[in-house]
Design goal:
Layout: E1 3-4, H1 5-15, E2 28-31, E3 37-38, E4 41-44, H2 49-57, E5 62-65, H3 82-88, E6 92-95, H4 98-102, H5 107-114, E7 118-122, E8 133-141, H6 143-154, E9 160-161, E10 167-176, H7 181-186, E11 191-195, H8 199-208, E12 211-214, H9 217-235, E13 241-243, H10 258-263
Parallel strand pairs: 4-5, 4-13, 5-6, 10-11, 11-12
Antiparallel strand pairs: 1-3, 2-6, 7-8, 8-10, 9-12
Helix pairs in contact: 5-9
Length: 265
């Protein structure tokens, strides 16, 4: 039995409505046709050369991603680009981005659950409608303890944070959400977990005595891919669906003491 790309699209659409995508976003079937039959599918945060190679090894002709493979638009397609390789290899792509961010089954709910938060609910604010989630820790933590907890739970390579007060309520926003720290504090949270936090946001949060945790874009979003893969597998039980093992954080980190660096000069 073969499922079609539209079958996969419809399952995603039921739990993360593509109509809820932001106007600036690019989601849906971005490469291929809904009528195309799917031999096997691969779920990944991004389309990368490694993910495409893995799809080929698995004989998968559909890749489902969070980040759009085409964004925001294209003027040309270079023969060395992943998009060219996908088309040449007859591999379709569905991308679920801001619709998956907002979904109760998507990125931010999954992130909140990864941190063992309870009482999870949307953070309703005009600046970020439907994205962020707020919840409560099982037990209060000090900021340094919480930062380490976030690093371990998300298996993040690196975490940076500001020192606030004891933490019991937490707001999460996968991807870039540093601008939300004030709204998180007004909502009664003692910490915000997000990524791509700007320097002035760290300064402001520190001055205000609020814990702002930057765990990296990849780490705050990749956990949702396993959840998405599991949902698809349950709804399409006869489909061959795999979570990409080749996906990884594109950033690399140096771990050394400052004195070690200075000794090498």
């Amino acid at each position: 039995m073969f499922y079609t790309i539209k079958d996969f699209y419809d399952v995603i659409d039921e739990s993360a409505n593509f109509g809820d995508s932001e106007g600036w976003d690019n989601t849906g079937v971005l490469i291929g046709s809904g009528k195309n039959k799917v031999k096997a599918a691969l779920v990944a945060l991004d389309v990368t050369p490694d993910v495409i190679a893995e799809a080929k090894r698995l004989n998968a002709n559909l890749i489902i991603t969070h980040h759009p493979v085409i964004f925001p638009y294209l003027n040309s397609i270079d023969s060395d680009s992943p998009i060219y390789e996908l088309i040449a290899s007859n591999i379709g792509v569905i991308s679920a981005h801001t619709n998956l961010d907002k979904s109760d089954f998507g990125v931010n709910t999954t992130l909140a659950k990864a941190l063992n938060l309870t009482g999870i609910k949307p953070l309703q604010i005009a600046e970020n409608p439907g994205f962020a989630r707020i919840g409560e820790l099982a037990e209060p933590m000090q900021p340094n303890q919480f930062a380490l907890f976030v690093k371990e739970r998300l298996m993040a390579s690196s975490v940076k944070y500001t020192q606030g007060s004891e933490i019991s309520h937490v707001v999460v926003c996968g991807g870039s959400g540093g601008e939300l720290w004030r709204q998180a504090r007004l909502a009664g949270a003692h910490a915000l977990v997000t990524s791509e936090v700007k320097h002035h946001q760290l300064l402001e949060a520190k001055t205000a005595g609020f814990t702002l945790v930057d765990a990296g874009h990849y780490a705050t979003e990749v956990t949702a891919m396993a959840s998405l893969c599991d949902t698809l597998s349950k709804r399409l039980p006869k489909a061959k669906i795999a979570l990409a093992q080749s996906q990884s954080d594109p950033a690399q980190y140096v771990y050394t003491e400052r004195n070690d660096l200075l000794n090498g000069i």
